Amino acid sequence: MSKNNDIYIENRASSAAKKINKLNIPDEIKKQLIDKKVFDFWFNNKELRALSDNIDIAGGESIQYAASGKYDNHTALIICTNMRVMIINKNMFIGGDFTDIPLNMINGVSIKTRLFLSDIQITNGATNIFLNDLDKTAAPILADTIKSMSQNYQQSIQNVPVQNTTDNTQDMIAELKQLKELVDEGILTEEEFSAKKKQVLGL
Predict the structure, then answer these.
(1) Which InterPro entries is this protein grouped with (predicted)?
(2) pLDDT digits (tens, 9 = 90+) for 99-150
(3) Helix 190-201 crosses helix 165-184 at what angle (to 10 degrees)?
């Protein structure tokens, strides 16, 4: 990204921050939109209000980026969080629509740039989601954010440590041997041994 482009984004984000602060949405959502330098949402006030009802701030979900575009030929707000991609459309005639794609279900993201606007395609399993007419500057930021967040999310799932069942099994065998020795020495009865054995084995 060029220095001129960075300055352009900073200027647009600064201008957008003034509008965001005037919106009737929770302060935490305002802060996240401003922190991520979201600037392309000029016809999405209804969608931003609907975002408050759909994002799980209390559960740790946070906005990574957002931009305006078209989905299924209707104006929509596309939001990438640290958990999913949300597509919100609050059309006054069709009553609105909400689509979400968990990050672990995203197989690929591609972008096609036209003269003034850009299109993003999200591959979700065997399904392709087409997002059209995005701002030419905001689109690559959104596409890159979706790519990196989905990759990081899937990697974090794969790296969850698996409990070492071998060590647990060895510990249980050792404990059972000790209990059997206590039975042989007459310190424990067979009934007490059976009860302890069930406790150790989690039965």
Answers:
(1) SHOCT, YokE-like_PH
(2) 999 999 999 999 999 989 999 999 998 899 999 999 999 999 999 999 999 9
(3) 170
b/e 164-188 (16+ beta carbons within 10 angstroms → b): eeeeeeeeeeeeeeebeeeeeeeeb
Tokens found for residue 109? 């993201």
- In angstroms, the CA 39 to CA 34 distance is 8
Q: Is 108 helix (H, G, I), strand (E, B) or coil?
A: strand
25: CB partners within 8 A, 6+ apart: 48, 49, 51, 52
Split at pLDDT 50, 70, 90, the class of 3 is confident
User: Residue 7 in contact with residue 50, Cβ under 8 Å?
Assistant: no
CA distances from 161 to 3, 153, 169 (A): 42, 15, 18
The domains of the chain are located at: 3-158, 165-201
Written as six digits, the tokens of 48 are 């931003």
Interatomic CA distance for residues 165 and 17, integer angstroms: 52
Total-model pTM: 0.74
Per-residue b or e along 84-106, where b marks 16 or more CB atoms closer than 10 Å to that residue's CB? bbbbbbbeeeeeeeebebebebb
- And the tokens for 156? 């974090």
Distances (CA, A) of 114 to 66, 119, 134, 135: 20, 8, 10, 10
* CATH number for the domain formed by residue range(s) 3-158: 2.30.29.30
